[in-house]
């Protein structure tokens, strides 16, 4: 039915947005990890 198609489209859009958000979070965590690792290296010297 038409309702089901709309629902599927809405779910797909929400999942796509969620995936983008998760990717952004992972990217930020990665950068945090990199800079904290860098800071630890700097402290050693």
Explain the layout of strands and helices.
Layout: H1 2-44
Count up the helices.
1
Name the assembly state: single chain
> What would you call the shape?
rod-shaped
Strand content: under 5%
User: Helical content, roughly?
Assistant: over 70%
Low-confidence stretches: none
Description:
The protein is mostly helical. It is 96% helix and 0% strand. It is built from 1 helix and no strands. The protein has one helix spanning 2-44.
Write a brief caption for the model:
The chain is mainly alpha-helical and 45 residues long. 96% of the residues lie in helices and 0% in strands.
Task: Using brief descriptors, characterize the structure shown.
single chain, 45 residues, mainly alpha, 1 helix, 96% helix
């Amino acid at each position: 039915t038409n309702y089901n198609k709309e629902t599927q489209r809405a779910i797909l859009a929400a999942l796509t947005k969620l995936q983008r958000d998760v990717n952004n979070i992972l990217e930020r965590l990665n950068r945090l990890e990199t800079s904290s690792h860098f800071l630890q290296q700097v402290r050693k010297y």
